[in-house]
Amino acid sequence: MISILKNDLNRLLCKKFRIVLTLTLTTLAIMAAIFINTHVQGMGNIALVTENGKYDKALPSSFNITITDESPAFSELVSGKYDAIITDTNGTVSIETIKNDDYRTSLQALFSGQTISENAGSNNRGIGTRIIGYLMMFMLLEGVVLMYMFADDKEKKQITRVAVSPLSMTKYLFSHSIFTFLFIFIPTLMILYIVKFVMAADIGFSLPEYILLLGIISAFATAFSLFLNALASKSETANMMGSAIVILTTMLSGSFYSFEKGNALLENIISVLPQKAYLTFVGGLESGLAIQDILPSLFYLTSLGLIFFIVAIVKTKKDYVNH
Amino acid sequence: MYQFNRIFKMDLINLATNPMWIFYSTGFPLLLILIIGFLTSGSYGKEVTSYDYYGITMMIFTVLYSATISANSFMEERIKSGNMRIIHSPVPPFFIYFSKILASFVFTTICYTFAGIVLMLTVHVNFGGSNGVFVWGLLVLLNFFSCTLGVLMCCALKSESTTNQLLSMLITLLAVLGGLFFPLDGLGKAIEMISYLSPVKWISTAIFQLIYDQKDVLLAPTAFIITGLSVLMILLSTRLFKREDYL
After folding, report:
1. Are residues A34 and A131 both part of a single domain?
2. pLDDT level of residue A122 (50, 70, 90 thresholds)
3. d(CA B216, CA B138)
4. Residue A119 lies in a domain
5. Where does the ABC-2 type transporter transmembrane domain start and stop, copy by copy (chain A) (predicted)?
6. Could you tell me if A72 and A159 lie in one domain?
7. Of A275, B3, B98, B102, which is most buried with the most CB atoms under 10 A?
8. What are the φ and ψ backbone dihedral angles of B58, each rounded to 5 degrees?
C-alpha cells in the first residue's frame, strides 16, 4: 500500500504544472468567497435617476444607491450591475427592473414613503457556508482529476498486473483513494488558512470544524471519482463526464447562491443531490441548528459515498479479478 | 488543397460520429440553460427572463468549452495514430492541426447554432432580434478562438488529458470571474474591476449591449481582438508543433 502511495506521489510530481494550477485555483476560489462575502450588502444596487443628480429625501439604508442624473443603459440591468433603475421626476416615481414582482412592489412601497421589513430577499448564508460552497465545486473537480492514475492504470492495462499480484484489489483501490483524498484535503485546508492569515479575514468555522467539513467533502469527492473511473473504460470519458456532472449538479445544489422559488418537482430532484445535503449540513452547523436536525443530511452523504466506494470496488473486481 | 480536404473531411466525420461530442455540444448547453434558467426564473420578471440571461452567458460558456473538443479531435489516442501516418506522407504538417481546428470549429458551430435555435423556439431566449446576426457572429468568432486555443494547448503541453484538465479549470475560472454563472457587477466596484480582467466579461458586455441597448461600440474592437488572438494562436501552434512528439 505504501508503495502505491509513493508511486502515486511520484507520478503526480511529474505533473508539476497541474499541481501549481490546482493550488492557484483553490486560492482564488477562497479569496473570491471571502471577498464577495465582505462586499455583499443589503437588498441590491439601485440607480436613482433625478433631474439634477440630487435627492434630498431620506434614503432606505438597506440598498446600495447610486444617484445620477443620467439613466444607466438597460444592459446594465441585465448584467446585474443594477437591480433596479428608479426615476424620480418631481416626486413621481417610476421603477424599471428585471426582477420579480415582489421586488418591484417593495421598491414601489419604499420610495413612495412607506416602510416595509427590510430583510426580505436578503441572503442569510454565513461566510463559512459560502466559502465551502465555492470550494465544493473545485474540490469535486480535483477529485475527478486526481483519480487519473487509476484510470491510467486501467487504460494502459497495468491493472491486470495488479490483479495477479499478491496485492488485493480492495487495497489497491483504497490506496489510490487515500492518495486522492489527501491531495484534495491537505492543500485546500492549508491554502484556506494561509488566505485567512494574509487577508486577516473571518472564515466562519474553527479549525476542527473545517477539518471535519473539508474532510467529509474530500472523502465524498474521492468516492465519487473512484466510482466514475470504475464505470468508465477510458480516463477521458470519466474526466469529461465527471466535470459535466460536477458542474451541473453543484450549481443546481446552489453552491454559489441558493435558488429561490423553483418548482416543486425540481426541488425534490435537487434535494436528492449529495451536494445539497452537504450544504444543508454545513449551513445548519453554522447557524447553530440542533445536531439531530442536521444529522440526516450527513448520514445521507456518508452512505452515498460508501455506496459509491463499494460499487467501485465490486465493479473493478468483477472486471479484472474474477473473470 | 485536395489533400487538405481529405484530412478535413475525415476529421469532421470523426467528430460527428462520436456520440459523446454530439451530446457535449448540443445536449450540454441545452440542459445547462434550461435547468439554470428554470431554477432562477422565480427571481426574474417578465420583461427579461432568466433564460435571456443564462441563454447568453451559458452559450458563451459552452462556446469556450469548444477548446476541449478541438484538443480532443487533435490528440485523442485513436486519432494520434492517424496523424502519425499523415506525418509520414508528403503533406505539410500545417494541415494536421489546421484541419483539426477547422473541423471542430465547423462541427461545434453547427451544433451550437442548432442548440441556439431550439432555445429561441422553446423558451424564447432573446438573441437580439435584428442584431441577432451580430451576436451570432461574435459567438462564432469566439468559437474559432476556442478551437485554436485547444489545439495550441495541445501543441504546447503535448498531452491531451493535461490540456483538457487545464482547460476545463481555466474556463470555469474565467466564466465565474466573467459573471457567467451569476452576475458579479452588483457586488461593488472592486469586483467589477476584477471581472473585467476576464476576457469573458468583455464579450458578455458586448453582447448584452448589442441586444438591450442596440449599441455596437464594443462589437468591432471585440471582434478584432478575438480574430487577432486566433491568428496569433495559429502562428504559435506552428512554432510549437513538433512532429517528433508523435514518436
Report:
1. yes
2. very low
3. 12
4. no
5. 61-313
6. no
7. A275
8. -70, -25
Distance CA B169, CA B186 (A): 25
Name the A residues in 38-77 with CB < 8 Å from any B CB: 39-40, 44-45, 64, 73-77
Say yes or no: A237 contacts chain B, CB-CB below 8 A. yes
Provide the residue range defining the domain that includes A216: 2-38+125-320
A68 & A162 share domain: no
The angle formed by the CA atoms of residues B20, B24 and B30, to the nearest 5 degrees, is: 135
A117 falls within a domain: no
Is residue A67 within 8 A of residue A48, CB to CB? The reply is yes
Q: What is the ipTM of this complex?
A: 0.74
B10's CB contacts (< 8 A; 6+ apart) are: B82
Q: Looking at the structure, do residues A139 and A98 belong to the same domain, yes or no?
A: no
Whether A92 and A137 share a structural domain:
no
Is A57 in the same domain as A89?
A: yes
Residue with cell 491531451: B160
Summary mean pLDDT of chain A = 81
> How many Cβ atoms sit within 10 Å of the Cβ of residue A20?
10
Domain total of chain A: 2
Whether residues A8 and A22 share a domain: the answer is: yes
Nearest to A180 by CA among A134, A212, A132, A228: A228
Same domain, A244 and A297: yes
> For chain B, what is the radius of gyration of the CA atoms?
19
Asked if the model's pLDDT at residue B84 lies above 80, the reply is yes
User: Residue length, chain B?
Assistant: 247
Sign of CA dihedral B38, B43, B49, B52: negative
Say how far apart CA B228 and CA B222 lie, in whole Å.
10
pLDDT digits (tens, 9 = 90+) for A281-299: 888 888 887 777 788 888 9
Chain A residues touching B164 at Cβ < 8 A: 236, 239-240
Q: Is A317 left (phi over 0), alpha (psi -120 to 50) or beta?
A: alpha
Could you tell me the CATH number of the domain that includes residue A61? 3.40.190.10
Q: Is residue A11 in a domain? A: yes
Query: What's the grid cell of residue A100?
Result: 420579480
Q: With a threshold of 0.80, does the pTM exceed it?
A: no
Interface test with A, best of B208, B214, B216, B217 (most A CBs within 10 A): B208
Q: How far apart are CA B95 and CA B5, in angstroms?
A: 9
Per CB-CB distance under 8 Å, the chain A contacts of B24 are 240, 244
Q: Of B163, B149, B152, B138, which Cα lies nearest the Cα of B220?
A: B138
In degrees, rounded to 5, the angle at the alpha carbon of residue B197 between the alpha carbons of residues B192 and B203 is 85
Retrieve residue A195's grid coordinates: 488566505
Q: Tell me the residue type at B127.
A: F
State how far the Cα of A289 lies from the Cα of A167, in Å rounded to an integer: 45
